[in-house]
Amino acid sequence: MTESFHRSGEYENPYEGQQQAPVNPEWPPPPAHAPAAPQPKKRNRGPVALIAAVAIVAAAIGGGTAYGIQELTGNDTVASSSTSTNVVPSSQKGTVAGVAKAVSPSIVEINADSNAGSSTGSGVIITSDGEIVTNNHVISGASRIKVTTSDGTSYTAKVVGTDSKKDLALIKLENASGLKAATLGDSSGVQVGDQVVAIGSPEGLSGTVTSGIISALDRDVTVPTDEDQGQQQYQQGDGWPFEFGGRQFNGDTGSDTTTYKALQTDASLNPGNSGGALIDMNGNIIGINSAMYSPTGSASSSSDAGSVGLGFAIPINTVKADLAKLRAGATD
After folding, report:
1. Helix crossing, 65-73 with 45-61: angle to 10°?
2. Is the pTM of this model over 0.90?
3. Which residues share a beta bridge with 280?
4. Whether residue 33 lies in the annotated active site
5. Which tens digit of pLDDT belongs to each residue from 76-130?
């Protein structure tokens, strides 16, 4: 959706339609018996409109264009930024605590029930009326979806659209309003070594915050698209199965798979973080956490199981490019 702004109060020329006297400092003044009729003072309207326009342009240069449009046009517009918007207050800028405080209200816990069992994952609120982005494997085949926000409020959610090839899904809360939407950043500017924060519900521990760095870019991560295969592996506590470099991790990925370019992070991710947020230090969402490596074994019985600092996230630019398709009800 595009928006345009129209300036009102353009400068009006009071002499429009009249013959204009040439500009000449030596030109004699008009006769005393024919004084110029007073004209309405409208000149100030032009500069005022110009100042307003400059303010809008300044906001755009500062990276707040989409946020400004959201505030002016309604709550169903996704807040996104082509640059880095400062979501975190300046007093806490660059701190994990500041990021956690600013973004945690936009992260939810998702519990999905299906024929294969139940699973717990995470999601990111992208509109104030309850649109949520998550991984397809979190809600794939679900007959019932329950979502809990950071303040403990529970909602029922319905699937709007899915894209198994990108492991993305869009769900919508029922009867929700006034939620805090996250700001979607620009993953094209992410660099190796950038500090990041991850927020999600590992093992059902909602609102868990971890931090680390971007370890690598453009990792070719392969995950299953078959819902039964994914749910069965996910239930074993070994994390979502994936393949990288010809090797399979956390179980057999099966025959029906898809590959995408992922951000790699050493921020701790565990089962339940899937669908949650990977966030830059300004509070912008730069990725949707989707896969993690866990040594073979049950998380409840093996001391080696759990995060070892190998996590992967779908770049947020991939998500933004897929939103229109998901909103249109895609089911592939």
Report:
1. 120
2. no
3. 196
4. no
5. 566 665 556 789 999 998 999 999 999 999 999 999 998 878 889 999 999 999 9
Measured in residues, the chain has a length of: 332
Q: What angle do CA 242, 107, 105 make, to 5 degrees?
A: 165
Q: Residue holding tokens 């090797």? A: 247
| Secondary structure (3-state) at 101 | helix
* Average pLDDT score over residue span 18-40: 51
Residue of 80, 106, 128, 137 marked catalytic? 137
CA distances from 319 to 46, 166, 246 (A): 41, 8, 26
Distance CA 227, CA 218 (A): 25
Rounded CA separation 199/101 (Å): 11
**Separation of alpha carbons 16 and 116, rounded Å:** 77
DSSP string, 104-166: GGGEEEEEEEETTEEEEEEEEE-STT-EEEE-HHHHTTEEEEEEE-TTS-EEEEEEEEEETTT
Give me the catalytic one of 80, 140, 274, 307.
Answer: 274
Sort 325 into a burial class: Cβ within 10 Å, 0-12 / 13-18 / 19+.
middle
- pLDDT at residue 286 is higher than 90: yes
Active site residue 128: no
Residue 137 annotated in active site: yes
pLDDT tens figures, 213-225: 999 999 999 888 7
| Active-site choice (163, 167, 266, 322) | 167
